[in-house]
Design brief:
The chain has 134 residues and is an all-alpha fold. The chain has helices at 3-37, 42-66, 77-119. It contains 3 helices and no strands.
């Protein structure tokens, strides 16, 4: 088997495994934020969470597929490690950026929900006070 093909197989296995692991972690822990933002509506939180995970998979796996090809041929075992370190390093950076973007968006949504809750008075007004003249 060609060394380039070996590098491709290892690259795909590791990058797909990392993508699945990060997506599951985001899904499991992001659901708590979504539930809080959506005022305990568990069904809606699950649906939004699932949509976010699907989008995460599409973007990351699409990037992994596009980044697969390489014009250089790998001549030795050292070349395999060099090619893999470059490709997997970029995939890890993209996964990290996607993770931070997801956390940022979830936090922004959560903050908006907290601000909306603070705008409501704790008790309804019970009467009016006439303005005093100055």
């Amino acid at each position: 088997m060609d060394r380039t093909v070996i590098a491709y197989v290892i690259y795909l296995a590791v990058s797909i495994g990392l993508t699945v692991w990060v997506a599951r972690t985001l899904s499991r822990n992001g659901r708590v934020f979504l539930s809080d933002v959506l005022h305990g509506n568990e069904k809606l939180a699950d649906a939004v969470n699932h949509l976010l995970v699907v989008g995460f998979y599409l973007v990351n796996l699409g990037f992994v597929a596009l980044y697969l090809s390489d014009d250089d041929t790998i001549a030795d075992t050292r070349g395999i490690f060099e090619a893999l370190s470059t490709k997997l390093g970029v995939v890890l950076l993209v996964l990290g950026v996607m993770h931070l973007a997801n956390v940022f968006v979830l936090n922004k949504i959560r903050r908006r929900g907290l601000m909306e809750r603070e705008q409501l008075p704790p008790v309804p007004p019970q009467g009016w006070v006439a303005p005093t003249g100055v």
